[in-house]
UniProtKB/TrEMBL annotation:
Amino acids binding L-histidine: E83, M84, T85, R114, Q128, E132, R259, Y263, Y264
GO cellular component: cytoplasm
Family the UniProt entry places it in: Belongs to the class-II aminoacyl-tRNA synthetase family.
UniProt-listed PANTHER family: HISTIDINE--TRNA LIGASE, MITOCHONDRIAL-RELATED, HISTIDYL-TRNA SYNTHETASE
SUPFAM superfamilies in alphabetical order: Class II aaRS ABD-related (SSF52954), Class II aaRS and biotin synthetases (SSF55681)
The protein's Enzyme Commission number: 6.1.1.21
Pfam families with a match to the protein in the record: HGTP_anticodon, tRNA-synt_His
Aminoacyl-transfer RNA synthetases class-II family profile domain segment(s): 1-331
EC class name: ligase
GO biological process: histidyl-tRNA aminoacylation
Origin species: Prosthecochloris marina
GO molecular function: ATP binding; histidine-tRNA ligase activity
Principal location class: cytoplasm
The protein's name in its UniProt record: Histidine--tRNA ligase
Length: 432
């Protein structure tokens, strides 16, 4: 074995798995289209300040999980993106998208990087799909974003997910709550674990989602965020829930749900999967009305978004047997050569078939007919097309259906006419 290994926390996706990824991505693109979202792609790295400013200096991500480097000794620091919202908002502002329309619906499928301790469901390079609805964050907009996320899960056939909902209120509500939470926790700080004690200073809200049962017991008697919400926050949240009911989406209200990042306000949500172990969050999101201003805009631009981890989605689907039927496109024709001297003819025949959109394979390694047939079957090719001296002389070729074993003798033109209706190009036209 070679001494060269993929970096810990990263992984290769081999051809055997790629069809599952393509399947998921195809559903995402389709559902995003149904909801009128447009794809956005942003650079893999950004200036470090962008993440410090948006995600928040006290969060775990900025505090210890970013891959940061300085390409030039005295140049600006750069960070591999640990999440997408900051980059999308930066692009939105830089590209002055607000000038073209008051509302933008953007989505992405992207690779992210976090220096976390690698474990099941936690990698250092991972993928997310997500959406950002920028320009409005009305309860309708929030419900639309959640609806799109849940439709992706439903269309993929995923079951057993739990949608948890909470309202974080506006910045003022949250400040009052954080003050009350601190006042409650400070006298108890000796009972807190080290992690929670650290958070008490920097980001006490995060103590609410501690997995430690002793901390959970302390939190059980803590002041409730809900009691600090203003009337409009409560009203908005109730509307969101009402729209979810209209969409027949079930959810639970979880008063302890807080999101890790600083820029969230009002509705926050998370989806967990019972198929995952300790890292059971499959995705989450919420409103982030203040982010644009934080990044230098003159005024707030309301926005709402979510992100779903694709590796965890894939694990869930695998456990539910939803990937067994997903296979890569098999070849339609395997051109079987009687002898290798005729290879130039196979080159020409494959070329003619492929130009007509018919997926065609030929042997590139000078193997025996028997070996070629074995490979055609292994690849689940639909037909074998036999090329020998006589066939070339008469320009009539045996086309064998590899499922029924029926064989017809046809010219290349006739073969094309027979298979073209099932070809890639005709499928594309009928999809459009
Ligand atoms: P977050 O941006 O932390 O809310 O993450 C959103 C989703 O991305 C999570 O629910 C996970 O599904 C996924 N995710 C986050 N961090 C990782 C990671 N290190 N490895 C794999 N998936 C992750």
């Amino acid at each position: 074995m070679s001494q060269y290994r993929a970096v810990k926390g990263t992984r290769d996706i081999f051809p055997g798995e790629i069809s599952s990824w393509n399947h998921i991505e195809k559903v995402i693109h389709r559902v995003a289209g149904l909801y009128g979202f447009h794809e956005i792609r942003t650079p893999v790295f950004e200036y470090t300040e962008l993440f410090q400013r948006s995600i928040g200096a006290t969060t775990d991500i900025v505090g210890k999980e970013m891959f940061t480097f300085r390409p030039e000794e005295k140049g600006r620091s750069i960070t591999l993106r640990p999440e997408m919202t900051a980059g999308v908002m930066r692009a939105f502002i830089q590209g002055n998208l607000a000038a073209t329309s008051p509302v933008h619906k953007l989505y992405y499928i992207a690779e992210l990087f976090r220096k976390e301790r690698p474990q099941a469901g936690r990698q250092r390079q991972f993928s997310q799909f997500g959406a950002e609805l920028i320009g409005v964050s009305s309860p309708e907009a929030v419900a639309e974003v959640i609806g799109m996320m849940m439709q992706v899960f439903a269309d993929l056939g995923v079951t057993g997910l739990r949608l948890r909902m909470n309202s974080l209120g506006d910045v003022k509500d949250r400040m009052h709550y954080i003050k009350a939470l601190r006042e409650y926790l400070e006298p108890l700080s000796a009972l807190l674990d080290e992690h929670s004690r650290e958070r008490l200073d920097k980001n006490p809200l995060r103590i609410l989602d501690s997995k430690n049962p002793e901390i959970q017991a302390i939190i059980a008697d803590a002041p409730r965020l809900h009691d600090f919400l203003g009337a409009s926050a409560i009203d908005d949240f109730e509307k969101v829930l009402h729209y979810l009911d209209e969409k027949d989406l079930s959810y639970v209200i979880d008063p302890l749900l807080v999101r890790g990042l600083d820029y969230y306000c009002h509705t926050a949500f998370e989806v967990t999967s019972s198929e995952l172990g300790a890292q059971d969050a499959i995705g989450g999101g919420g409103q982030y009305d203040g982010l644009a201003k934080q990044l230098g805009c003159k005024s707030d631009i309301p926005a709402v978004g979510f992100a779903v981890g694709l590796e965890r989605l894939l694990i869930t689907m695998e456990k539910q047997g939803l990937l067994a039927h997903v296979t890569s496109e098999r070849p339609q024709v395997y051109v079987v050569l009687q002898s290798h001297e005729l290879v130039a003819h196979a080159v020409g025949i494959c070329d003619a078939l492929r130009k007509s959109g018919i997926r065609s394979i030929m042997d590139l390694a000078g193997r025996s007919m028997k070996a070629q047939m074995r490979e055609a079957n292994k690849m689940s090719a639909a037909y074998a097309l036999f090329v020998g001296q006589d066939e070339i002389q008469n320009q009539v070729f045996g086309l064998k259906n590899l499922v029924t074993s029926e064989q017809d003798f046809l010219s290349i033109q006739q073969i094309i006419e027979r298979l073209e209706p099932f070809s890639e190009s005709s499928q594309k036209t009928s999809d459009e």
